[in-house]
Known about the structure:
The chain has 2 domains: 5-289, NAD(P)-binding Rossmann-like Domain (Rossmann fold, 3-Layer(aba) Sandwich), CATH 3.40.50; 293-493, N-(1-d-carboxylethyl)-l-norvaline Dehydrogenase, domain 2 (Orthogonal Bundle). 47% of the residues lie in helices and 11% in strands. It contains 21 helices and 13 strands. The model has no long low-confidence stretch (mean pLDDT 96). Helix 11 (293-317) crosses helix 16 (382-400) and helix 11 packs across helix 17 (405-420). The site of D-mannonic acid has 8 residues, from helix 11.
Amino acid sequence: MGELTPLNQENLAEIGNKISVPTYDRSPDKASIVHIGVGGFHRAHLAYYVHQLRQLGEASEWEICGIGLRQNDKKLHDIFKKQDHLYTLMVQHPDGKKEAEVIGSIVDFKMGTDSPEAVITRMAAPETKIVSLTITEGGYNFNPNTGEFNFENPQIQHELAHPDDPKTVYGFLTASLKRRRDEGLPAFTVLSCDNIEHNGNMIQKMLLAFAKAQDPTLAQWIEKEVSFPNSMVDRITPVTTQEDIKLLAETYGVEDEWPVTCEPFIQWVVEDNFSNGRPAFEKVGVQFVPDVVPYEKMKLRLLNAGHSVLGLLGVLHGHTTIDVCVQDELFAQYLRAFFDEEATPVLGEIKGINLADYKDSLLERFGNPNIKDNVDRICSESSAKLPKFLIATIQENLAAGGSIKYATLVLVAWCYYSDKQENQNGQKLVIQDEMKEELHQAAKKTTEDALSFIKLECIFGNLIDNKRFTDLYTEMVNHFYNDVDIKKYMQELL
Ligand code: CS2
């Protein structure tokens, strides 16, 4: 490997000889979007859309100031500081073609943990027009069973007692919106970019519940002034690996400490409801629609659920990535059966979308051999994902008398995974879940009480009261615990 060029503003001209680089002016004063949760997904999605617009010479005031609210965002903060907030996006095509591009749309980054005041000031600044979020399903702080705001969270209690020392998105949103109201500034739009059904309505409901508890007059102002568009976001973005960093260095001679790799596919469907203006995203392929709900439901119940089906069954078998799962013919067939016989019948018709084509495209996307999407990422935070992605489909099929066996086996696999914390070959698994301990405690009683896992009401709701479900689950869990061979069981069900 020859001499590497470190990625930063000064080296852009040189790097531009090898890969596409931003050609626009980059200045923190232009950051009208404040984004909370700058993970790989945000950098492959919203930040990429803004970058494309800027490359077209459009939307000159729309750049992004990133915000980290968790201690482990510090690593990105420090790397961004060295790299002038630049990073490389590497699109990996199934045929091996690679497209690398330096993205410049993020121009600033602040850590809420270091200085809450600096973040509040930034969000309350007159130039801030949109506060967008990718805070993951768990970050919304609702009880999945009741759908209500979880006031028991100790961080929320701290924020209610100390409004000047916010910790979560709720504390920061109310503190900055309060300042805007008091200073007579227009509210910003709160734009959720997470995989949650009705994500805009959800953040609105949660924020209003929190604000009401803090200051009812502020809650009224927020209700009147802030808009919360629903949106469906999509781009598969695996966790960055050392190999990605190495590949970039070897192929282009660029030293980037945190590039992002993603698939070619990208989609964003948004409701056009922005109270304080928005960039002309339609010029770079964003779809504005009056009602995003059918798109969201389709994506969550097929793509995200499909990921969980492959991930939880695959991890037990010993598959490490999603592409390897779908290249295993049995997994591909199983996924197809789940899509066709369980997920599709409760979706209803989605105007303008050919579901058969959509499902084919998912199998293709999942099978991209150059997107090594680790099953650990997919299985992480299953307690926040499965209620919406998979359990909702089971509930609707129970009500409609439809098939539930493919999805139920995934719950059995999840129980075994949470119980043993190893795969069926006895290898230890890396489990990351806010509820890891509760899941483990419930799952480990399975041999005495087959339904112990399903009794976790905050995840499974009232499934425990449905005899058709509990009979099937009991039979399946007993069968699987007696003969731990996930592929054999999948084959039997098909
Ligand atoms: C994945 C998603 O988190 C998950 O389990 O299904 O991150 C998925 O890759 C994205 O939603 C794709 O848009």
